[in-house]
Amino acid sequence: MSLFYSSFFLQVFKNPFIRKRSLAILFLVFPIDVSAEQNLSFRVALISTLSLDERAKAYYKKTNFTPIWTDSTSESAARRAAFLKALSTANLHALPEGAYQLTEIFNGLRTSKSYHDLGLLEGLMTKSFLRYAEDIQSGVLKPSEVSSALAQEVVYRSVEDYLSGLNSSDPYLYMRSLPPQSQEYNNLLKARQRLLATMKQGGWGEFVPEDILKIGDRGPSVIALRNRLVAKGYLLRSVSAVFDNTLLSAVMKFQLDHGLFADGIVGAATIAELNTKVQERLKAITVALERERWHTSSSLLNPNLYSRKIIVNLTDFTAKILDENVVTFHTRSVVGAIKVNQTTPEFSGLMQYMVINPTWFVPRSITVKEYLPELQIDPNVHNNLTLFMPDDGTTISRDLIDFTLYDEDNFPYEMKQLPSQNNALGLVKFMFPNKHNIYLHDTPHKTLFYKEQRTFSHGCIRLQDPFEFAYTLLEKQSPDPVADFQSALRNGKETVVALREHIPVHIIYRTAVSSPDGHIGFRRDIYGRDTIIYKALTESGVALIQNQG
Asked: For the chain, what is the radius of gyration of the CA atoms?
């Protein structure tokens, strides 16, 4: 056996998944040097295998059908070994192992003898590689095909980019470069392995009874609570049946990690999170991995272009400004209500300007579906709103309108609210133009920020601390951002302030989120989107517990 085959086997056998199939690899002796004689039979077989992928065929034609996987060079052997090793770890990333035809590849490696066989194997491995590379880098699913609410842009690399990149790189380093390189993705991978280990050990033990527990309580329910928190890593083991200060601190930490108010009282919401099964947390991690693959494929994440970004996590009800991936501002948010056409979509955009003392132009859907029926009963309702003609802006007196003559299809007027303290947008809005007409803004309804689940808007995102948010945005272009902002605010006129540097805004939806130290917290699936995505992933072949070989 040649030296390069011996080296190839040593590399491959290090992986236990492939070692179990080593007998098949032992027969990997290609009898001919395809690269030396571009055999017609090889080409025909390769093209037939790639019949549905014109991009891959174009690449092979461009390279004169030079094999990537199946010639007798050490480079080709290294690519085979690196790819097989990568496929053997696909389960770690919650990918659909069966989609990559690993069994068929092993059979081809074992049995291929002729040019025709090698052409079929070459095509099979290329198709498998392209599917794997795109899945692990940009996601198994196309977001917009799962739900119209998943409107984030995903940039897909070209077939030529993948194949030429593989051909021109160290194959092991290239395979390792394909998954997202973000800290978030790495933290999720580690959390998934911990949860799998926990599930194998039987989970987190008995459930906590549905009692309200607080400091000073004692008894079996407190013991169950303590044991559950010990199993989850929030407490050191103890036999105490008393709800003491140590247990209180653990409860509050658990509540913070799960998006609950940290009041230390174990009520229905806290117990529901405590009693969530490991399998459900694994589903959240699986979906979060897929979402992170989508997210890191956005062109707006290029650190060479944008050092600052804004992240709004819908399930967390927060908005953050990050500089060099470090949170420099954080505030609570209110997001779209759990109603048809009011949930906030997921997408990214570029924040370009803010409007101080904004006018609120009432969305058409609100005007005709909500306000018109009320105006038909009482023409003076919502008298803080002005009616106007949309073509020229002419103000129309309500006294001149018989609202009962109109329905939502033929109502000819629009509505707006002039700048004021009571304006629905508050005193400032932050604009990143998009087809969804979503933006961030102030609000006069401050009490809603003290709700635990803040799903109350028509889709836009309300901020608890909009002035401080504005100051942080302006600090990069003004020596005194507070004074500049307040001066514009005091004049009472609608004022547009352009941002000299546009800032990426990412509206995300994560029910599994990591902290800088790698700890994973969980949030509720408020819109049910994780359920939809997980179902689509399972239909694509992703399993909660993958085949371990």
From this structure: 29
Dist. CA 97–CA 118, nearest whole Å = 23
Render pLDDT for 267-279 as a digit per residue (tens, 0 to 9).
Answer: 999 999 999 999 9
Of 89, 114, 252, 236, nearest in space to 172 by CA: 89
The candidate with the shortest Cα–Cα distance to 333, out of 259, 421, 391, 400, is 259
In the chain, what are the domain boundaries?
Answer: 3-177, 303-512
Q: 329: which residues sit within 8 A by CB, 6+ positions away?
A: 320, 321, 468, 469, 472
Is it the case that residue 27 has pLDDT exceeding 70? no
Strand pairing class (326-336; 455-457): parallel
- Give the C-alpha distances (Å, rounded to integers) separating 481 from 202, 268, 475, 497, 504: 55, 44, 5, 11, 20
Instruction: Return the half-sphere exposure (C-beta side, CA atoms, 13 A cut-off) of residue 119.
Output: 21
Residue with tokens 């092993």: 106
| Residue 5, φ and ψ in degrees, nearest 5 | -65, -40
Please give the span between the terminal C-alpha atoms of the chain, in angstroms, as a whole number: 28
Phi, psi of 432 (to 5 degrees): -130, 85
Whether domain 303-512 has CATH 2.40.440.10: yes
Report which of 4, 8, 3, 9 is spatially closest to residue 23, judged by C-alpha positions: 9
Per-residue model confidence (pLDDT) at position 6? 40
pLDDT at residue 12 above 50? no
pTM over 0.85: yes
**Mean pLDDT across the stretch 344-371?**
96
| Residue 265: other Cβ atoms inside 10 A | 16
Q: Which of 19, 139, 146 is nearest to 84 (CA)?
A: 19
* Lowest-confidence pick of 1-5, 108-112, 199-203, 267-271: 1-5
